[in-house]
Amino acid sequence: MKNFDKERYLKVTTGAASLREEIEKCADEISKKKFKNIFLIGSGGSIAILQPFEYMINSTSKIPAFAEIASEFILQNHKQLGEDSIVILSSLSGTTKETVAAAEYCKAKGATMIGLVGEHGTPLAELVDFAIANYAENDFAADSINIQMYILVFRLMYNNHEFPDYNEFIDELQNVPYVLLTVKEEAETKAEAFAEKYKDENYHMLVGAGTAWGRTYAYAMCVLEEMQWIPTKSIHAAEFFHGTMEIVEEDTSVIILKSEDETRPLADRVERFAEQYTNKLTIFDTKDYELNGISPQYRKYLAPLVLATALQRVSIHLEDKRGHSLDRRRYYRTVSY
User: Fold this and answer.
1) Are 123 and 100 in contact (CB under 8 A)?
2) Alpha-carbon distance 31 to 89, whole Å?
3) Every domain range in the chain assigned CATH 3.40.50.10490
4) N or C: which end of the chain has fewer CB within 10 A?
5) Whole-angstrom Cα Rg for the chain
6) pLDDT of residue 128 exceeding 80
7) How far apart are CA 20 and CA 13, in angstroms?
8) SS3 for 130?
């Protein structure tokens, strides 16, 4: 595969999976306390990674979950946050200023905090009660954090006498780095064809829902816009028919990310519409990938990982076909803002 370091990828993903014992110990210790809710806090790509877990918790557990953008969260004065709250914060660098500020805010409120970071000793790692570190770089950060989040979130639910199949699910998750390698291979031809066809496209609509929504939001903003400078709108499938549909024309690029959770009919509806009114429809569907070794009942939870994996190959080929490095920035962490 083009521009893919298999050894580094496996180091990151198996490294995340190998943290199972540490993460379970953390979750078990927290579960001994009486907590009333879970906050998932991050910025940019990090909050996008956490958003699907809000959906998973709220559709599986009676524990209320809130996914919040760090900088807005600080200003909001959220009345559900308190000493009996669990706060999970994510920042690969451990230095994202908005997320660090949110951690300081939550610390002052007495909440119990868990930080998912790329390394210990960073500002976020130093602020939280439990720092979980796995080295990763931007290209595989989503994979690393997702794997850790499955263990952490589902263990918390299991300890709350929910999701009794936890051990079976996480046992299967241990093999997911190798499952995702197969997804990359299966996605390669489609990814290259997409990049070739759309290398000069100047606008995309990216649509998703449920466990696919976080990746929809992230890929539009953090990849197509930030890394490729292509104007892109992320649209929730449930909201597509409340305005956005009016600007679809026969040459409008519509990309739909489909998962296998309860919200799939929302994406199906957008697909049926787009098939009639645009000649530029692309579907990335988790059903297209075998996921050998993953039981059918767990597939819906893995949509964030599977879609991220397939789209990583799209990114590599867009970079190549467009001659635009994924690392090129004009403003982000380059100028003051």
Assistant:
1) yes
2) 17
3) 6-172, 176-322
4) C
5) 19
6) yes
7) 12
8) strand
Of 34, 21, 35, 49, the closest CA to residue 144 belongs to 49
Q: Give the tens place of pLDDT for each residue, 278-315.
A: 999 999 999 999 999 999 999 999 999 999 999 999 99
φ and ψ of 179, to 5 deg: -60, -40
- What tokens appear for 324 in the block? 């635009």
- 6-172 in CATH: which number? 3.40.50.10490
Whole-number Cα distances in Å, 235 to 200, 215, 272, 275: 22, 11, 16, 17
Q: What pLDDT, in 10s, does the model give residues 306-325? A: 999 999 999 999 999 999 99
- List C-alpha distances in Å: 61 to 49, 85, 248, 257, 285: 19, 16, 38, 25, 26
pLDDT tens digits for range 36-76 = 999 999 999 999 999 999 999 999 999 999 999 999 999 99
Report the percent of the chain where pLDDT is more than 90: 94
C-alpha dist (Å) from residue 308 to 24, 74, 243, 250, 300: 25, 29, 27, 27, 14
Terminal Cα distance for the chain, rounded = 37
Q: What is the CATH number of domain 176-322?
A: 3.40.50.10490
Q: Which tokens belong to 257?
A: 């990310």
**Which pTM was predicted?**
0.96
Own/partner contacts of 245-249, CB < 8 Å, gap of 24 or more, are 245/273, 248/205, 248/273, 248/274, 248/277, 248/278, 249/277, 249/278
